[in-house]
Each structure stands twice: as C-alpha cells, then as structure tokens.
Design a protein that fits this description.
Elements (H helix, E strand, L loop, with lengths): L4 H14 L9 E2 L8 E6 L2 E8 L2 E7 L3 H23 L7 H16 L1 H17 L6 H14 L6 H8 L7
Helix pairs in contact: 2-3, 3-4, 5-6
Length: 170
Amino acid sequence: MSPSLSEVEALVSQLAQKIDAPEEYLPTYGDSKDGGHPYIEIESGVLFYLAKERGQQTLYYIALDLDDLLYHIFKDVTFMIATKYELKNRVRGQSFRRILFIEQERLIGVLDEKWQARLQKKHEQILVDHPFNDNADERATYYKQLVKNHQYPGNEWSLACEKYPLPDKN
C-alpha cells in the first residue's frame, strides 16, 4: 500500500531534522511552488518526484518505492547543504567536488547507509567521465595572463596545461 502525502511529508520532516536540513530545501506536497522547487505527488499509488520552472516540467521522476523516493529527495537536499559547506571550506588548488562529495555522502549516510553506498557509487561513475580537476582556477588564471600579455599567441592553452596539467581520464 502506498503512503499518503501527509505520511511522506512527516517522514521527510523527521529525516530532515536528523541533518538540520533547512525547510526551504524540502519539497512541497501535492502542488508546485514553481521556480524549479521539487514537489511530491501520489497518483493511483504511484510516487512522483517533480519540479516545474515557469510552468514547464523540469524534473519528472517516478519512484520505485518509498525508499527510492526518499533517496532522491535527500540526494538533492544533501547536495544543497554540502554545496554551502564546501563554499565555506573551499581549498584553493583543489576541485570543489572533493569536499562537496565527501560532505554529501556523510550527510546522506546519517540518514541511511544504503543511500550512502548508492550515492558513493554515483559519484564514482561521475568521476570516471569527469575526474577531479584540481588547479582549474590556477590554470585558467595563468591562461588569461598569457593571453593578456600576448607573449605566446596560439600556445597559451598548451602552456597553461603544461604548468597546471589537466586531469587524466582513466
């Protein structure tokens, strides 16, 4: 039997308290606030995780079950919290995703260890195609400096990448 919207809302609220998630990060229930804010609908026992932006559907996810719905809600909630955390704890010369991924995985792990493992796997898959790009800021700054100085026309990017190498794709 599928839960009611009020049951989902109560469960989300209970879990959100465990990680001090701000109310504004949580979805609405049954109707959209628009602006890309997620909301939950239940139709004929089917759980939907949705979002609209200017009346256009931007997120449409049919959850497999309540656990899957909760994972997707808190994947997004923990991402927003981890993003703010990373910004306050940024390390120069290091990909912002290093701190963000660790903090997001930690937060979701407070809620459910299976969700943590699922999110870690997702992050690992992301890093296969898009590895951490440490020194990206330094590379870009150096490149701009070379272009501005007109010393090495056409070779600026190669020189910047030589000094601050691009990440390897394994």
